[in-house]
Each structure stands twice: as structure tokens, then as C-alpha cells.
Amino acid sequence: MQGTNWVNTNMELPEDGEPVLLISDGEILAGVYRLEWNSVEGEMQWFLDDVVAPLPIPDADYWMYLRDLPMPEGE
Questions:
Q1: What span, in angstroms and rounded, lies between the C-alpha atoms of 74 and 36?
Q2: Which tens digit of pLDDT belongs to each residue from 25-47?
Q3: Would 23 disulfide with which of 3, 9, 62, 63, CB 3.0-4.6 Å?
């Protein structure tokens, strides 16, 4: 992910509750995720809006804050 704002999940995780995009198995996942505490599982997990089934942290390879998305040329 050189030359982009993608961060390896093995190196660092985003701030709790901050909206991010995720890459898993080389694909950008459709949706905006947040890293939050899952009281049922007893661990931090990726949550997609109001989706009931969160994604375990190891299932994502990279993340990027929405605020860090590159702007189109000329913006």
C-alpha cells in the first residue's frame, strides 16, 4: 500500500469509533466501519453501521480514516 494512507492492521489500529475504510484479502470492503467494543464477544471488533455481525480485527488487513481519503485533482 505504498504511496497511500492505508495502515497495516498489524502495525496500528485506528482510534475507537472513528470511521474508516477496510481492505480484506486485497479487496476494499463496501461500507464505513468503526472499531468498537463488542460486549457479547468481549473484544474490539470492526462494526459496519447497524450491521449485527461485526468483523473480527484480524479479518481486515489495512484501514484508512475517511478524513484521510485523497481529494480528486483540482479540489
A1: 35
A2: 999 999 999 999 999 999 999 99
A3: 62
- pLDDT for 23 beyond 80: yes
Task: Centre a 10 Å sphere on the Cβ of residue 9 and count the other Cβ atoms it contains.
Answer: 20
| Residues shown for the chain | 75
Residue type, 59: D
* Cα(57)–Cα(35) distance, integer angstroms: 8
Return the exposure string of 34-70: e unless at least 16 CB atoms fall within 10 Å of the residue's CB, then b. Answer: bbeeeeeeeeebbbbeeeeebbeeeebbbbbeeeeee
Split at pLDDT 50, 70, 90, the class of 74 is: low
